[in-house]
């Protein structure tokens, strides 16, 4: 699977994490899933490991949140697609989300996750290689 597209999923709710992982795998992506921002930060230290990041916004009290993960991902790779998932923080996206990201509000259909990843991979951010 040398040429597979690996997506990092950061979600602290096991049922949602499983749903997102299954949808992405059914869509042909390889997935690495973690349940905390801190675990995601460790994985993002390798700038070439992932082709996209999907993160829940609220990952637990006094923990790194999805906004932090998005910023960290973009510090690692300025063109890395970032997708946020939230049930109650959508109003904060314009101020706290990274540019050229997407937001999916919960509840969502699993196909929305696959479509969001495909959209960002097929339409790279301005200034990204191949854009």
From TrEMBL:
<feature type="domain" description="Response regulatory">
    <location>
        <begin position="6"/>
        <end position="121"/>
    </location>
</feature>
<dbReference type="Pfam" id="PF00072">
    <property type="entry name" value="Response_reg"/>
</dbReference>
<dbReference type="InterPro" id="IPR001789">
    <property type="entry name" value="Sig_transdc_resp-reg_receiver"/>
</dbReference>
<dbReference type="GO" id="GO:0000160">
    <property type="term" value="P:phosphorelay signal transduction system"/>
</dbReference>
<feature type="modified residue" description="4-aspartylphosphate">
    <location>
        <position position="56"/>
    </location>
</feature>
<keyword id="KW-0597">Phosphoprotein</keyword>
<dbReference type="InterPro" id="IPR011006">
    <property type="entry name" value="CheY-like_superfamily"/>
</dbReference>
<dbReference type="InterPro" id="IPR050595">
    <property type="entry name" value="Bact_response_regulator"/>
</dbReference>
<protein>
    <submittedName>
        <fullName>Response regulator</fullName>
    </submittedName>
</protein>
């Amino acid at each position: 699977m040398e040429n597979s597209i690996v997506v990092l999923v950061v979600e602290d709710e096991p049922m949602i994490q499983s749903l997102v992982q299954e949808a992405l795998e059914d869509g042909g992506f390889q997935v690495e899933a973690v349940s905390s921002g801190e675990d995601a930060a460790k994985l993002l230290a390798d700038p070439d490991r992932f082709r996209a990041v999907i993160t829940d916004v609220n990952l637990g009290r006094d923990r790194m949140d999805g906004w932090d993960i998005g910023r960290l991902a973009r510090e690692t790779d300025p063109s890395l697609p970032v997708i946020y998932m939230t049930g109650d923080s959508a109003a904060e996206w314009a101020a706290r989300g990274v540019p050229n990201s997407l937001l999916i509000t919960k509840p969502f259909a699993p196909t929305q996750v696959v479509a969001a990843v495909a959209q960002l991979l097929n339409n790279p951010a301005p200034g990204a290689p191949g854009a």
